[in-house]
Design a protein that fits this description.
398 residues; Rossmann fold; formyl-coa transferase, domain 3; 6-stranded parallel beta sheet; 3-stranded antiparallel beta sheet; CoA-Trfase_fam_III; CoA-Trfase_III_dom_1_sf
């Protein structure tokens, strides 16, 4: 084990993706993360997505990486007692049960903090731990809907679409959760006091919808679906090429519009009073988009990128995963990392983020087999005898 978080022990009792993704981030940087799974089948993420040769899905192999798996039924008195002993020797608990569930089992934050006052507990749920909807169930798709994100995704007047990944809210909530956990660990280091970190799935998406809230509060602006366009700024969209691709162009200020005009061989457009500023271009959105679309449609992808690069205009092909695997930038940044897994053979997984100059993350192994760390956790760390472990296993407590 190496990394800046070595010495931090995390008990991940969550399921699926949101809170567990926080554990993945911490594990990438050296934290010891024990994935605590139900003895009967383990985490449902093992069965979500396409199956690898290991039997578990690629989602599991990727997103449970660097963790150790142990099995424990928290709903049983003996399982709960073993968990309390683990909490006494740990720093962080990650959970995403419906609010009140852990309290019902005698494992709520207040009860665990009596055992370990420095304990940090990340709690991810659909709507957070408080409020009139807190008891409702939910997944990422529900969070996309409730946050306002899904309403904005798609073409005007048509059915709203999935905004990229169906699991986006899970990933974002895990990311905000990791920030919260690190802040709480810093506070505990200074004061000796742990705390709860409370994240609602919808909140992580609502937080990143730029000016949606203040614009509505101040001016009553109700943003609607705009397809590939964005509010106020044009050209800032996706445009077709002559050879069947699409490019993204981003002219977020007047200077960039001048550069694009030069790249199109029509520098005079930047001086046209109708198109000179952000507000005037927005007033002539359809005209601007038509001008750019006619230009891109007459050129190959390569020609467009070459001309935009020459004028320093932000541009990119809309990349498929096959494009990504062939791209030199992804290779140079090691965004795709291949490891040899003893169960599945060679696996290519997304690289860790962020890059660190002194304490880089490390991909040690893919998602583990169910219960691969039972002996280490129960016998080595807790000192449970081999005989008792056999009995607990026979009764499906571990």
């Amino acid at each position: 084990m190496s990394g800046p978080l070595v010495g931090i022990r995390v008990l991940d009792i969550a399921t699926f993706l949101a809170a567990p993704f926080c554990g993945t981030i911490l594990a990438d940087f050296g934290a010891e993360v024990f994935k605590i799974e139900n003895p009967s089948g383990g985490d449902s993420l093992r069965r979500f997505g396409s199956r690898s040769d290991a039997g578990d899905t690629f989602m599991w192999m990727s997103e449970a990486r660097n963790k150790k798996s142990a099995t424990l039924d928290l709903r049983t008195p003996e399982g709960a007692e073993l968990f309390r002993k683990l909490v006494a020797q740990s720093d962080v608990v990650l959970e995403n049960f419906r609010p009140g569930t852990l309290e019902k089992w005698g494992l709520g934050y207040e009860a665990l903090a009596e055992i370990n006052p420095r304990l940090v507990m990340l709690r991810v749920s659909a709507y957070g731990q408080t409020g009139p909807y807190s008891a409702r169930p939910g997944f990422a798709r529900i969070a996309h809907a409730f946050s306002g994100l899904a309403y904005l995704a798609g073409e005007p007047g048509r059915v709203p679409v999935v905004p990229g990944s169906t699991s986006l809210a899970d990933y974002m909530s895990g990311l905000f959760g990791a920030i919260g956990v690190l802040i709480a660990l810093r506070h505990a280091e200074k004061t000796g006091q742990g705390q709860e970190v409370d994240v609602g799935l919808y909140e992580s998406m609502f937080r990143v919808l730029d000016e949606l809230a203040p614009d509505y509060a101040a001016k009553g602006v109700q943003r609607e679906r705009m397809g590939a366009d964005v509010i106020n700024i044009v050209p800032h969209s996706h445009y077709p090429t002559a050879d069947g691709h699409y490019v993204a162009l981003a002219c977020s200020n007047d200077r960039m519009w001048g550069r694009l005009s030069a790249a199109m061989g029509r520098a005079e457009l930047a001086q046209d009073p109708r198109y000179q500023t952000i507000p005037t271009r927005d007033a002539h959105r359809d005209e601007i988009n038509a001008i750019v679309r006619n230009w891109t449609s007459a050129l190959s992808l390569s020609d467009i990128v070459t001309r935009c690069d020459a004028e320093q205009v932000p541009v990119s092909k809309l990349m498929s995963v096959s494009d990504i695997f062939e791209d030199p930038q992804y290779a140079a940044r090691e965004n795709l990392q291949t490891i040899e897994d003893p169960r599945a053979g060679p696996l290519t997984l997304p690289g860790s983020v962020p890059r660190m100059s002194r304490t880089p993350p490390r991909l040690r192994h893919a998602g583990p087999a169910l219960g691969d760390a039972n002996e280490e956790l129960f016998q080595t760390i807790l000192g449970v005898s081999e005989e008792r472990c056999r009995d607990l296993r026979a009764r499906r407590i571990i």
